[in-house]
């Protein structure tokens, strides 16, 4: 693979991974307008965000085995077409209930664009490069939270919230074209790969029994759930509680996202000196301390708009270190079944995210307490899991052969 092809592939994979976050971030500034237009509350509109997370969670479990059975590109085509059709439906919806359903379908289709890139990275690049490739992808993913809320607030103000879904439809079509023209098939269809439910469930069970996968996939999912809580709760906290405008909210969102991007690129520098395990342990500890202080200071009434932004900035910047390293460590033990492992990791992450975002919506907000409390709880639980489970990890180099042999035995049934 020459340098130009490598760059093109990473760009396509990065933009594919970004379409689902873009579908979230762009419509967040439109919550008040959607609520007003559909005669409902912002809290009810936030359930369309939770349904999106649930759709991604369920969809990833379904598409992972399909990626291993039919190759990487055919499931990508099918999923992206469903995404485009559901997005068109969002343009014309007249009720919040239908919006919630369409967002679920949009997520089921679009989730393959999250699973396939992780599997393709495992197909095309050496294990020791995975964390670096994931960091490059975060640089592209970082475009979403910087551009999307700003673009969304501008479009809501000047063209109405429906225009957001028109733009997402166009982006979906462009991505389909990019996959057709510029992305190689990294894994040929495997007709021997069984799609029997019992076989798939058994494969998932063995993946979960791999200590390295369990520890880092679950730890990464719980810590990132704080990010999903932020996505669900930040429209109320900043626009309603602190009284910022839609444009100001987009700027705040972009500033905080800049921390995530910067830290993801600093991660590449740290990987020259430290292992992924060491980086995760340190940055998760920092994130836990930031989350605990954020909640305590909110409860004591010490925070204003700017100090709240600063603490959330520190908290979410840690994700730029945690995500690429925990993802690489989770995927390292798997080769042939990278699609299923990627799907399970993504499903766990989105499942945790759906729970966190739904939990934010369950509370009647009068201040920032529900949001900061859930953000703090997520990282505290992740920290406890990591430091109590790390002793049990058998690293990938010692476990790949055993894991692959076990999975091959399952496929014979």
Automatic annotation (TrEMBL):
Signal peptide: none annotated. This is Bcr/CflA family efflux MFS transporter. GO terms for cellular component: plasma membrane. The chain crosses the membrane at residues 7-24, 44-63, 75-94, 133-155, 161-183, 213-233, 248-267, 279-299, 343-363, 369-388. It is found in: Cell membrane. Belongs to the major facilitator superfamily. Bcr/CmlA family. It is a multi-pass membrane protein. Residues 9-394 form the Major facilitator superfamily (MFS) profile domain. InterPro entries: Efflux_drug-R_Bcr/CmlA, MFS, MFS_dom, MFS_trans_sf. Its main location: membrane. GO terms for molecular function: xenobiotic transmembrane transporter activity. It comes from the Bacteria. One of its GO terms (biological process) is xenobiotic detoxification by transmembrane export across the plasma membrane. It holds the Pfam family MFS_1. Keywords: Cell membrane, Membrane, Transmembrane, Transmembrane helix, Transport.
